[in-house]
Design a protein that fits this description.
Blueprint: E1 9-11, E2 16-18, H1 19-33, H2 41-74, H3 83-97, H4 109-120, H5 125-130, H6 139-158, H7 162-167, H8 178-183
Antiparallel strand pairs: 1-2
Length: 209
């Protein structure tokens, strides 16, 4: 998903996404990943509310699906051999997303799984979701939880801030780590075990859209 940040839109292989919606999605991820460090919450919440008012729930979902696709590409989704790790990665991710039950609706989880699956298959998750039917108001929260977990994984493999630098402040694309693709099929050393085992702190709640 080669993309460049622009003033009004971010272009994927088959869809255009408003930059404000992508930034709002990342702001929500930042809240979920911040734990008890709530100093930045007021400003982030203000930006999220403004973006939601401007773009609406549907575009906010698209702004979340876009970085999900980009983050998964960082670990090899859509590349030759990625299907070898897709099933295990997706299952583990969904098992962990369920732990965020306090902030999402279980009915949205099948769509999260499908977005992850089509991305591993090399399809554009935004364009695919555009064709997959209406967007419930609750769905962006479920996608945000998945994105937060994927971002944690990328940062644990590539270093703190790696996911944000690649998605929100794009640099020259880097090849996914080769050892990630190898180890994901080895249960004794799979880096996917680096995903946080626990859900978010109970004090974390999504701000109203």
């Amino acid at each position: 998903m080669a993309a460049r940040l622009r003033s009004t839109a971010m272009t994927t292989s088959g869809a255009r996404v408003k930059v404000g919606a992508v930034q709002a999605a990342w702001d929500q991820v930042s809240i979920l990943r911040s734990g008890d460090n709530q100093g930045a919450w007021p400003e982030l919440t203000k930006r999220i509310a403004a973006a939601t008012a401007i773009h609406g729930t549907g575009e906010l979902l698209r702004g979340t699906a876009f970085p999900i696709g980009g983050a998964l590409e960082q670990i090899g989704a859509g590349r030759a051999g990625s299907q070898q790790i897709a099933e295990k990665f997706t299952k583990t991710l969904m098992d962990k997303v369920v732990q965020w039950a306090a902030v999402l609706e279980p009915s949205d989880l099948p769509m999260v799984r499908r977005v992850v699956t089509v991305t591993f298959a090399g399809r554009d998750p935004v364009a695919w979701r555009d064709q997959a039917g209406p967007v419930p108001d609750s769905e962006p929260r479920a996608m945000t939880c998945a994105l937060a977990l994927i971002a944690d994984f990328v940062d644990r493999v590539d270093g703190p801030g790696a996911c944000e630098r690649a998605l929100i402040r794009p640099r020259r694309p880097r090849r996914p780590r080769a050892e990630l693709r190898r180890n994901c099929c080895n249960s004794s050393s799979c880096p996917f075990t680096l995903l946080p085992a626990d859900g978010p702190p109970v004090s974390v709640r999504p701000r109203p859209s």
